[in-house]
Amino acid sequence: MQAFETDAGQGEPVLRMTGITKRFGAVTANEDVSFALQPGEVIALLGENGAGKTTLMNILFGQYAPDEGSVEVFGETLPRGNPRAALSAGVGMVHQHFTLAGNLTVWENIVLGTQPLGKLSLSPAAVRARITALAQKFHLKVDPNAKVGKLTVGERQRVEILKALYRKSRILILDEPTAVLTPQETDDLFATLREAVALGLSIIFISHKLHEVMAISHRVLVLRHGRLVAERAVTDTNREELAALMVGSEVTAPDIPAMPAGPALLSLRDVHATGLNGVTLDLPAGQITGLAGVSGNGQAALFDLISGLNPVRSGAFTILGQTPAHWTPRAALETGVGRIPEDRHTTGSIADFDLTENAILETYATKFSRKGWMNWGRARAATEHLIATYDVRCPGPQTRIRLLSGGNMQKLILGRVLEEAPKIILANQPVRGLDIGAVNYVHGRLAAARESGAAVLLISEDLEEIMTLSDRIHVISEGRLSPAFARGSVTVAELGKWMAGDGEGSHAA
Amino acid sequence: MEIIDILLSVSFWAAAIRIASPLIFATMGELICERAGVLNLGIEGIMVAGAFAGWFAVLSGLPLWAGVGVALLVGMTFGLLHAVLSVPFGLSQHVVGVGVTLFATSTTFFIYRVALPEVSSPPKITAFQPVEIPILSDIPLLGQALFNQTSLTYAAFLTVALTAFVLYRTPLGLAVRAAGESPSAVAAQGLSVTLIRMGAVVVGSGLMAVGGAFLTMSAFDSFFFEMVGGRGWICIALVVFGAWKPGKAMLGAILFAAFDALQIRLQQTGVGAIVPYQVFLMMPYVLSILALVLMSRRAEVPAALMVPFNKGER
Amino acid sequence: MRLEPISNAGPARKLLPPVLAILASFVVAAVLALVAGGDPFAVFGLIFKGAFGSKFALLETLNRATPLIFTGLAVAVAFRAKLWNIGAEAQFYAGAVVTAALGAGAIGLSSVFLLPILAITSALAGAFILLIPALLKTRFKVDEVVTTLLFNFIFLLFVSYLLEGPLKDPMGMGWPKSARLIPEARLPRIVEGLRLHWGFALALICAVALYVIDRKTTLGFEMRAVGQNVEAARFAGIPVTKVILKTALLSGGLAALGGFSEVAGLKGSLTLDLSPGFGYTGIVVAMLALLNPLGVVAAALFVAAIFVGADSMSRAIGVPTYLADIMLASALLMMVLAILFTKFRIRRD
Lengths: 509, 314, 349
What we know:
The complex is a heterotrimer. Chain A is an alpha/beta fold. The termini of chain A are far apart. Helix content of chain A is 31%, strand content 24%. Chain C is built from 13 helices and two strands; from the N terminus they run E-H-H-H-H-H-H-H-H-H-H-H-H-H-E. Chain C is globular. Chains in contact: A-B, A-C, B-C. Chains B and C meet through helix 5, helix 11 and helix 14 of B and helix 6, helix 11 and helix 13 of C.
């Protein structure tokens, strides 16, 4: 593919990536990608998970060396695979997962790596003064002396941006920066970015949220399967076109017909626990209850509570009409709670166990053993059945699960849960990082489980996912729940208010 | 009361400082390693190697301080072995540490046997002698105990100050502390986690070896097989007790040494006549375990301790 | 440079670690033999002859391997569950103490009853010794490496006290040693006339039993799951704390059986030098065996052969016996390094 001509360009581009190709074994992560970034420009890099956005930025930033192609910053070609070179050439990156040390203060995090290691003093006063000045200029409110471990997610992001600005970066790369922000915090971030652009900085903004891309950028580059498939000026395009470009075909999301709500299979009344402050929640049979919210506001705590990992401190916990005395993961499983955890690599599976061992992890004691003796024959047969039923692409049940792709791993976990015909299903970010095919598959299965009468709790940070799938929606913020909204009765803006903790009349509890 | 008499005697506190000195060196060494994110269980063996190397160098005709330098280098060499295996290769720090201890100990004993095949009792060297610091050593009790020690003891206290200064006041120390807490933060700022961690392990191991050398060159004047006797493991407990802070760890070492000095003296009193001496000898180890249990709840463990870091690995 | 996971290691790669480890130990030994003024090939020849060269040598090797199988199994079972038991030394002595205390006439029963009683009480004592660090780990999150190490020193002092006090043999001419076991408390020889006792057979039985537990029982499955990924195990409803405590009991018990076997089978009484570091060597044995229970038997035989052979070599040409310890330490380090290359390859990029 040819390099795109940029007509928005005034003068020399600040950054030029030419013919970038990167392969990992048989997988091609980037193929012949070329583009240029102009001074004062915001480019959005749009693409699905796995489209190669992060790899491309890691190459730009020197984390990986490309197999082919070159990176030029301010006319100078960067040496391959050297993060230091990218940094000192004026490229700053705000990673999706923050790279901050929690035991250090804000100013210490910012100054880290900017002074020669042989220097005998950190000159804290001068450093703090410069940070304060920068913070004022870019509207980034943060206390330089605070311990980073005590900051909120939004504040930490500001520290990350300050880190780049402190290094006098002229090019900022932001990888999915809004995933951890409320809609209002996102607006603040955009204000900062506009300020930066006005001062002549250039920005690469990575996202898969179309409305944000439309709001902040001048140009959009669309990546699909590692290739640059389209380039559009935002003035010449619209969300529908971008969505189609991103996926490569029309999206066929599963159709979710309305269903009458059954009785509440699980109910919480004013429940307090670690991370939860007075949660009242019903999970009715035959309904998907969506839980929206910014990451880290108690979603994991609620998931763990119903899973049996986070004990109830006070309040009423009723499941299938009973109040269990001793609620553990095993009790949850035996009662009929199926759980799809947020992190399938560390919580949902054991990397070096084979598929059989992973498939029976929750049921070995009840279904695949007698008096302490394992029945491996039956376990293998059940796993083969699971592999066939849930379309897990793998060499066989003896394959170690770490060799599977994310989608296939998730299908095995999904199968493990659904085979037990659970009455209550907890799904925490069940499609994160999956390609669109796997996403639709998982969503379809969850919808089917709901039709057969299960109560589903769907936790997600993706409002679009929540609003498409859920019959009822709660928003969680600082361990509290909003009231339930029926499908279609609430707007994104209203949900956003609740996400920020400013819902009307504040919290129902 | 015999205990009061003991606690008010200069000789008791002088002994406590003397006993604390090797622990202080080795504890600072371990602290540096752990602050960078590496648990160094090679400490026990590295102390043995250091004890032998320093003493043997002096026995072979080198001056005392050159002996300390030899011990330092030997410690750094074993540290490099540990660092290569545990940092870039990311092997289990538990297994590597135990392996390094076994390797350093057995190599030391082997060389001792090869070098001195026909001695029944090991030869002595002229060890470091106490240096009285004028004026300061006239302060009653504390001054008398603190300022009439060998120069190697003074060096131990200097090491604490230096460690604290580097860790908290310099860009290098900042990088070390960050490497033990969030290696990805270090990597994102263009620094090499691998080099910082390896450097910390190498330097820390050097200090451990100097701690060992203190035993043969200042506390005693000869080398015995069992002379380190678990001091390395105790230092690991002291790092936890000191909450990974140099000053606190030093105070812990002194407190610990005071108990040790006390039990030695109590053995000679009426209590010692009734209680078997083994009970007194057990006290340091029991105290270490107690310290670990007590501190377990509130200590701020470096978040990335024992977590290997590989860039590009998810 | 970074490490990249290998999807499926071939058999050659899988066999590499033990081969490389043994090779490394010989290379290091050759260098040190030269340092000590010996011809490396002569040294290896003498080690081999000393370990296998005669019926006596072979039996000596088997006898030396017996306690190592026990401590090796103890370490292997614990390490598989990521319970870092470095205290097999103390647990070994716990079994020895119980055997010496109860077997010297305190219980007057025939062998058929007395030996099982001694074995069981020994195992319980060892289990108890490891239970304390295990509880400190599960309750207070105290690192068990340090506590088990410190317990080694504490328990050895306790043994020293016992041997100078309650357990001291009145006929021992003042030596710190326990009274001899009564004949009923002695493990008989497997074949009359051959100096090899039933402790060796018991060790083999334990190895097979552990293998079966590992592969065929829910406990084995749970221990492996906890060792590989505690978080996933806990999430899946595996009672993690219970599994760790059960592992500790099993591990401590196995090490203590080694002490029982050594006192009741070989020595007949307890002294402070009963173990020349069997507990620590057990770590090397377990690692060389890749933590596989059946592999432990082979690794223990290898390690015992090196020790026995080095003793005899040292007597013959004066290269210090510590050569054996160095060989094993380098084998251990090389082993863990080589295991890495069965899972990853180095990539430059």
